[in-house]
Amino acid sequence: MPRKIENTSKAHLISVPLPNHAASYTVISHQFIIDYAFQSLTNAGFGIVDEEYRCTADGQIAQGIYKLNFNNDPELSMMFAWTNSYNKLVKFKCVVGAYINNTGSVMISGEVGSWVRKHTGTADTEVKSTIDDYISNAHMYYNQLCSDKAAMEVVTLNRRKQSQLLGVLFAEYEILTTEQASMIRDQMKRPQQVFNNTDSLWAFYNYVTNALQSSHPKTWMEDQRILHYFIGTICDFSAPVQNVTAQIPVTVIEATEDEVIDPLYVDPRQTNLLDQIADMEADQIDEDVRYAEAELADNQVVQEEVEIDTVLHQSDEIIEDVTEAEEVLLEAIDFHNAAIEYTDPVGNTFEAPVVIDDFAIEDNFDLDFTSNSEEDESSVADFF
Questions:
Q1: Tell me, what's the pLDDT at 66?
Q2: Residue of 109, 162, 219, 363 with fewest CB within 10 Å of its CB?
Q3: SS in 3 state form for the chain?
């Protein structure tokens, strides 16, 4: 069972031994990133209100999150984060985003944070310029996320739609573990924070970011970025807040040999997910209607069959009554001794016996062709 990733201290990250790889490997130490990030943020006029660090047990993979003293939105503070490794499993990444004050989770735009750098050549120098570039554009990234939050607040999701989005994030995008999916499901039932509308897309977004706080440092930043991209397919972050149905076009940039861009596997032809969900629900309703009509038709057929069976049964009873009457009549007559008297016009009386076929008397023309015994079956077989 893998060990749980827990928070650590800056001192611990600095104490982790540096890697000793091939000569072509350029070491980008955790301390180098921490020191330069502090310097660049200070030069840009930002103060660090809080700092959080997480790493694997051996400190080979680490991440840092800095909450900054800037917030135009009372719920969101500016944030700077980075990820680094000594074991070549994770390339250096950094990003400017928003820190959600109520939950301690973060927002990372789907269109930033995609620059990663191998630890080769002039990687250390390029890391500096990348940190500077993000921090110099920090206000732009932060303001966009504030706008994204406002757009999400006006989108209403019932429990069914939230469950469908959760399923896509878990089964298709695969950014959630089963434990994280359970955490989100529990928050959908009993939110840990207070929202103006617990059925809003913004509330659901927070449920997911809360769960992603337990993601491995290797995937944490990318999971956050994919989440925001995914939500952007539902709510058009580039449009005015009133219009939340269009889709943001995302461009995939080709990477050079040293610079690697992690694409989000975007399909520009992808339709709005909520529209897809609505279509699926409409199709289901149509299917239910068709099923109900078919079931009603079957019931009518069964009813008709029952009525026909009733008529046939009544006819059988009538035939049986007639047959019984004939049998009674035949029993009352002594066919062998009975006679017919006839008187002609002159007055002479004649008497003649009644002749009736014995076969007809015995069977009364009520022939039964069904075999009810082994003897009958054998006789039929002999016949054919």
A1: 98
A2: 363
A3: CCCCCEEECHHHHHHCCCCCCCCCECCCCHHHHHHHHHHHHHHCCCCEEEEEEEECCCCCEEEEEEEECCCCECCEEEEEEEEEECCCCCCEEEEEEEEECCCCCEECCCCCCCEEECCECCHHHHHHHHHHHHHHCHHHHHHHHHHHHHHHHCCECCHHHHHHHHHHHHHHCCCCCHHHHHHHHHHHHCCCCCCCCCCEHHHHHHHHHHHHCCCCCCCHHHHHHHHHHHHHCCCCCCCCCCCCCCCCCCCCCCCCCCEEECCCCCCCCCCCHHHHHHHHHHHHHHHHHHHHHHHHHHHHHHHHHHHHHHHHHHHHHHHHHHHHHHHHHHHHCCCCCCEEEEECCCCCEEEEECCCCHHHHHHCCCCCCCCCCHHHHHHHHHHC
